[in-house]
Amino acid sequence: MPISYQDFNSPNHIRFPNPYKRSDVIKLAQSFITYEQTLPIEQQTPFTPLISELLDRVLTYEDELKQAERQRQSAATALERLVAETKEIIWNMWKSVTAKCSGKPVQATRWGFEYKAQTGNVLLPKTFAERLETLNSYIAQEQSRTEADRITIPDLIKVMNLRDTLAAHSEARVAGRRQRESRVELCNELAMELSNYLQVAGVYILAMEFKFKLSKDLQKWGYVVSAKRSPNGRQDEASTTPIPTPGSASDGGGQIDAPAEVEVDANTGEA
After folding, report:
1. Cis omega (within 30 of 0) on the bond before 19?
2. What is the pTM of this model?
3. pLDDT of residue 262
4. 233: in domain
């Protein structure tokens, strides 16, 4: 909810943070609450309790977001370390199975390997999903056979342990990613709501404390107040040029700048 206000007689303008930059919105909210808490309750804005509540909630979800990302990264790192071990075990499985099925290589499909009829080759799995599926099929086939008939290299227990470890880390990675995406969505929603109330509170303070005169004292609440830019693109702190009248073509009046639309990173949810 962008808010627009112009003070044509002021040399300053106030700029709110982009609502898609959660860190900037949170920083303003923290500064706002810190200063409000120095004031008697009766002098605080009617929006202060809600801003404080929203800030607490978004900070909680930000912590959960970071925890979910750490879980995802930890699981992904563990899976990367297991790649070499997985390839080696599946290679040993392939050698044992192809040797056992040398007369009828198509039978290797019983252990989860793909058979290419055009060439007569038994293929190795290439992707993570294919490797996990091959491990599952191999284990199921071996468990259906008597112990005396089972392939001895690699050891079935070792194959089962590897499969369980891969599956656990894969599930942890997926769970971490889903939780991260969920928390990004929640954080973005709360940051947008927080940004709206910070804008409303800023205008409220402007009205009640400064009679709609843009003052740098708004910086006490964390708002960014700076000199307007002159027509040549430079800031004019002294504002020595004549004060334009409202509605004139040359007015560069004091104003509240609404955030512009920006592209958002799909992973972090921030601009």
Report:
1. no
2. 0.71
3. 43
4. no
